[in-house]
């Protein structure tokens, strides 16, 4: 079992929060997911970013308003989408 960190009362599920941060999610996005009820049961219909094409990633980045997307490579787009 890994080290358990207590992030205080603002984070309801420390283990989920840490796992999401390790995957590259921003603090804000990881906190939102970790604080939802049954986070693994919501959504789930979308492919992981790594399985999407550059065109799909670009269109998603365009939809959420990520600037500089036209010069980004796949890994940079994924990182930007996860941080958004």
Shape: elongated
- What is the average per-residue confidence, as pLDDT, rounded to a whole number? 82
How many strands appear in the DSSP assignment?
0
Strand content: under 5%
**Share of helix, binned:** 40-55%
Topology as H/E string? HHHH
The CA-CA distance between the termini, in Å, is: 30 Å
Identify the quaternary structure here. Answer: single chain
> How many separate helices?
4
Work out the radius of gyration: 14 Å
Main sheet: strands, sense, barrel: none
- Name the structural class: mainly alpha
GO biological process, one term: DNA-templated transcription termination
Biased composition (Basic and acidic residues): 1-31
Domain Rho termination factor-like N-terminal: 50-81
Region (Disordered): 1-49
Task: Describe it.
With 84 residues, the chain is mainly α. The chain has a domain of 34 residues. The chain is 45% helix and 0% strand. It has four helices and no strands. The protein is elongated and about 40 Å long. The N and C termini lie far apart (30 Å). The mean pLDDT is 82.
Keyphrases for this structure?
4 helices; single chain; 45% helix; 84 residues; mainly alpha
Secondary-structure map with pairings?
Elements: H1 14-22, H2 27-34, H3 54-64, H4 74-83
Helix pairs in contact: 1-2, 3-4
Summarize the structure.
The protein is mostly helical.
């Amino acid at each position: 079992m890994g080290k358990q960190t207590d992030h205080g009362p603002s984070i309801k599920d420390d283990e989920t929060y840490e796992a999401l941060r390790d995957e590259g999610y921003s603090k804000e996005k990881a906190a939102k997911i970790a604080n939802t009820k049954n986070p693994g049961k919501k959504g789930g219909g979308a492919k992981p970013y790594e399985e999407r094409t550059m065109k799909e990633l670009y269109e998603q980045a365009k939809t959420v308003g990520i600037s500089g997307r036209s010069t980004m490579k796949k890994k940079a787009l994924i990182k930007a989408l996860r941080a958004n």
